[in-house]
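Re-running the complex after MR caught last week's input typo. The corrected sequence lines follow. Everything else is unchanged.
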Amino acid sequence: MDLGYPLSAEKIGDLLKIARIGQDLTLQEVGDKLNLPISTLSDIEHGKRKTTSVELFKFSRLYNRPVDFFLRDYETNSSFAVLLRAVEETAVSKAAIIKFQELCNNYSFLKNLLKIPDAASPPDYSRSEPTNADAENIAEAERGSLGLNGQPIRDITDLLESKRGIKIFHMDVDGGEFSGALASDDCYGSCFLINANNPSRRRTFTIAHEYGHCLAHRNQLAHVDYERPIDQGSRQEKFADSFAAAFLMPRGSVIEFLSNLKSSKAEINSLTILHVAIYFGVSFEAAGWRLVSLQQLTSTKWNEIIAQHIPTSPIASVLGYVNDDTKPDVLPRQYKYLCYKAYNDGEISLEKLAELLGRNYHELKTEFETTNFQT
Amino acid sequence: MSPFKKPLIIDNDCISNFQLAHVLEKVLKFWPSGNIKIPQRVLCEARAWSQHGVEVCEIIERLIASGEVELMTIDDNSEEETSAYLELRLKQPGLGAGESESIAIAKCRNYIVASDDGVATTKSKQLFPDVIIVTTADVLKMAQKDGFLKYTEIDLIWDTIKSERAKQLATLTKTK
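Corrected-run output:
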């Protein structure tokens, strides 16, 4: 039966293959479960045979994807296909990546539905293959372009979402010490997945780190990051760390902050580092490492300080350095705004709204009806 | 002659209205057994309803067991139903997945959908103009015409729905 849908058999086949691989299933296993010969499945995935709607339903159940996933015009060699491959050998669940893709897809759906123009994309430095030494200048340029004027960034999610159009989702991702991931292509734009299980200061650094990858390594389509000490790892990781530190703690502002404390270099101690961390909204580790990279603190001294477990000490608590364990919203603010706008404009039903927000239909209905919701 | 001519698929919003007015079981039993259809995902959504989910599921599951209500999902072996569903998902993406399922089933099995969502109704009509969608109020009127309810009872049901929603919101706000 010809479905009359906009996608070619080849494209549907590609999407089916991506979804199958996403579930770690071989053609043989799919054939056994759906009672279809391997040759038929192979023909479907290669676009040699059109699939019926009944078959699509069966595939969607088996691959744990909404059936309309196979009807949307994705770039099949998209960043998410690369991302799924990147987590293949790790403990990060593919279900989390699939959910992330669904959220990004919902975001794109809402923007298209409401005809919201894309924010200016972040600049792309990937062709020039920037090195660690370029990180400081790129961070400075970005801060200038974003109008930050040396001030600490109070809400990096909001900033990058509203000014750079980056879609940032926070989800609980267990396994593999996962900290964050980037997916970037023409279909979705740039999207970050951040592990909500990490403390807020760490999440802030991860977002800045992913932004570094987004600026410098976007041509790779996708990237996954795991917990590791700052400034260790590949050349690309070192760049992203240096960028994140410089973006969150600009050189001039750090120097000025220190000079206002009337401290000389020799006087920088754990208390100063805590103060810097709190002011710039970063972790103690990130602040200390930044002071070392700015040659305000020696590595030897830093190694001594870091062995003292300062972040969990009473003095840290007194100064207000607390790891905020409050879980961030999964959904970014702009996403939620678009959801409500689409509902208010009569573009989506209440059930669709509940679906997009991941809310219970009945509870959402009660809130809406009783508060006479108006935007 | 009874205005109730075709089996009725009861959607989320009608379920919650009837439950709030304490008439869910009563309404689901008005018409002959098997004429009321509850989509599987409506039952799932009710399960996650913190305030009334337990009672709603108890009622529905009891009526399913006794054969008075039929649980329903799309027939994924039917090319007609799956195609209708896919068409809705593709051409009316502003509808929820569950609504699309109810409408696709109603189109293929000649059922009526009971839903209060104006957007869902409009979008359904654009694609499948023959599918009839009625509201909670329509269901109550049918019940009145068939002699199951009096006008005064309908008024009481509406007042109860309104006051219960206000109470619910207060509880939800407190627990958040």
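None of the earlier attempt is carried over here. Strands of chain B lie at 8-10, 36-39, 69-72, 112-114, 133-134. Chain B touches chain A at residues 12-13, 16, 45-46, 48-53, 74, 76-79, 82-83, 85-86, 89-90, 93-99, 117-120, 122-123, 165-166, 168-169, 172 (CB under 8 Å).
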